[in-house]
Design a protein that fits this description.
Layout (H helix, E strand, L loop, with lengths): L8 E4 L6 H10 L3 E4 L6
Parallel strand pairs: 1-2
Length: 41
């Protein structure tokens, strides 16, 4: 079994507005989600 030594950190903002996009990030290898609320209304 091999492990990656790097982590993929994603900033979640307005571009990720639906669950399908978030699922695709997880499938692609996202390890950590950082939420950016500075664009909120």
């Amino acid at each position: 079994m091999s492990f990656r030594k790097t982590k993929i950190v994603c900033t979640i903002g307005p571009a990720v507005e639906n669950l399908q996009t978030l699922k695709q990030l997880l499938i692609s290898g996202m390890n950590i989600a950082r939420f950016n609320f500075s664009h909120g209304d």
